[in-house]
Amino acid sequence: MFTGIVQGIATVEEITTAPGLNTFVIRLPDDKVGGVTIGASVAINGTCLTVTRQDGNALYFDAMQETLRLTTLGRLEPGDEINFERAARIGDEIGGHLLSGHIHTTATIVEILRPENNVTLWFEVPDEWTRYIFPKGYIAINGASLTIGEVQGNRFNVHLIPETLRATTFGKATEGDEVNIEIDSQTQTIVDTLARMGYDQPPMSP
């Protein structure tokens, strides 16, 4: 499990491509690899991957074809920067909301607004996922736990403070960038439960 509090920015150093599998070498800051073991879970742009090898502060991860298809990881290139979070431990403070590291879909940044001292990012998601997106609800974007601002059709925005921009890759985001989306699990459970009970149906005309 993860908390959605991004622990820093890491750099993709190398990618080895094989049929149905990509191996990523990702270099973390020196002070963020203490206690890492083979088999440990790390969220890479919100995607839970397993450490298969360690060489100093460079960690190796394998991503299967399904992971590459469902997330943005298949479009990473050497030199790209990513958000990372090591798995939460019992007793850790949950500053965001609980995440599984299982990506539901991707979204595209369609507009960036820069009012004084903050940034607003607008995202567009596939229509079938809009049922889980509500103003003031939780969402994880590239592994960062964020609060949804406004929702307009299949678009929504988030408002980012300077600290979030500093600690994540959002500080360098550009329009057209694709991001990984994990829907809040409690929201998804409630919406799906109501749908099974028939409460998502439009009212019948008199």
Automatic annotation (TrEMBL):
Alphabetically ordered keywords of this record: Repeat
Family annotation (PROSITE patterns): LUMAZINE_BIND (PS51177)
Organism domain of life: Bacteria
A Pfam family it matches: Lum_binding
Annotated Lumazine-binding repeat ranges: 1-97, 98-194
InterPro entries the record matches: ATP_synth_asu-like_sf, Lumazine-bd, Lumazine-bd_dom, Riboflavin_synthase-like_b-brl
Keyword Repeat tagged: yes
EC number in record: 2.5.1.9
Domain Lumazine-binding: 1-97, 98-194
Top-tier EC class: transferase
Keyword Repeat: yes
Record protein name field: Riboflavin synthase
